[in-house]
Amino acid sequence: MSDIAAPKRTRNSASFADVIVFVFAFALFVFGLYLFGASFSSPEGTEFWVFWGGLLASCFAFLVPILYRWARDSRR
Questions:
Q1: Transmembrane stretches, by residue range (predicted)?
Q2: How far is the C-alpha of 46 from the C-alpha of 21, rounded, in Å?
């Protein structure tokens, strides 16, 4: 039986920009959830737009870290 040595893993640590992107994305997600709830008590005729604003805000909250990592990794 051969002796297979696993490569040593390097420790990954978050940079300051990673933390800022996370805080921004989390705040955007929570704001989207707030808009979901606010759509039920918004003025007549605006419920649809407030709900869709919340949906878009929550979707962008997931998109922001993905695009950040893509842009950061493509520079290397």
A1: 16-36, 48-68
A2: 30
Residue 4 inside a domain? The answer is no
Q: What pTM was computed for the model?
A: 0.79
Q: Give me the domain span that covers residue 69.
A: 16-74
What pLDDT score does 75 carry? 79
Q: Which of 53, 62, 48, 63 is nearest to 32 (CA)?
A: 53
Residue 1 lies in a domain: no
Instruction: Give the tokens for residue 8.
Output: 């040593």
Q: How far apart are CA 27 and CA 14, in angstroms?
A: 18
Tell me the two tokens of residue 70.
């893509």
Domains identified in the chain, total number? 1
